[in-house]
Amino acid sequence: MSPLPLVSSPVFPSSLSTALSWAADWWELWALIAVGLVGVRLTPVVVARSERPAGLPEDAARAVERAGVPADRVGVLRRDGRVLAYAAGLTAGHGRVFVSTGLLRELDAEGVAAVVSHEYAHLARSHVPLRLGVPCAYAVAWAVDATLFGRAGLVAGAALAVPLAYLSVRVARWTEHDADAAAARGAGDDFRDALARLAAGGHLGRTAPAGGRLRGLLAALSMHPPLAERLRRLDEDTGRSGDTRVADGPAGSAARGDD
Question: pTM of the entire structure?
Answer without folding.
Answer: 0.80
